[in-house]
Design a protein that fits this description.
globular; single chain; mainly alpha
Length: 316
Amino acid sequence: MSTVNSSLVLPQAGQVRARGWAGSFVRLLRSDLFKLWHRPLTWALIGVTLFFVLGAYLTLIYTITNHMSAVLPGHLFGDDPAGLRNVIVQQLTLGRRVGQGTVVAMAGAVIGIEFSSGSLRVVLGRGVRRWQVLLAKYAALCVFALVLVVMATLEATLLAALLPVVVHGAPPITLLNGSSVVSIVGSDAGILENWAGVIALGSALAIIGRSAAVGIGGGLIYLVGEDLAGRVLPAMSFETHIGLWARLVDFLFTPNLNAFFYHSIPFALARELDFLDGVMPNPMVTAPHALVVGVVWIVGLLLISTALFARRSWGS
């Protein structure tokens, strides 16, 4: 990988004082985006995610060809605008699932490698505040997540347009209307909220462990553990009859990384999914509840990351 002259992309000490924190933050953000663009890992992870969107499309074709009633009007993938919307969002469910691993791996790599390589000493030596460095990296990773969502949605839409060629009776792309677009954008918002939380998790773990391996490995282990705990913890609270435990599970865990996404996708599609799809159906958890708890976890993880980053020495 070619190196980049840091003086071209990083603010100098005099520039930081002259431009203020906003100007230096923008310069840091541009620098981080530039590095993401030129990292082979970035494109490799994007390729993996888009490949699984294609895999979801092929699975969808197999399902429809074995259950042709699914494309009848009024059914899940029927010949109507709602059916076309479901065809597109169905592909994004697996894309979101795999994307969780993609963004946590990217967060662990970006935070862990740069913070442990010694290059951070150059940035801090230019008078940039530590919280600005961390926030710029988080913002750059969120931009990466946004680009990935847009690419996955465009791929899913293109594949949906080809579906009538492969499956007779499938909804044509001409049925795409304003209501369907709004629903698809809402599903994308659910994916972004989910990935923003995963990025905060991977970043925090990389800082705690001071390595990319901890950020990536710990983040992936949590994602797997959350799925298992999503079935075990509610059962434990039901069996133990401990009021405080049950309340903690209901208010802090049940609205987990997946809960808001469950409410962001069409209900007709959500009720057909299960925890293997990364969706744990729980209609008792409202969308506002899930969103507020998700934001609280993201802010909490960022505060922990900032506190640890500010107190530790990153010069070596």
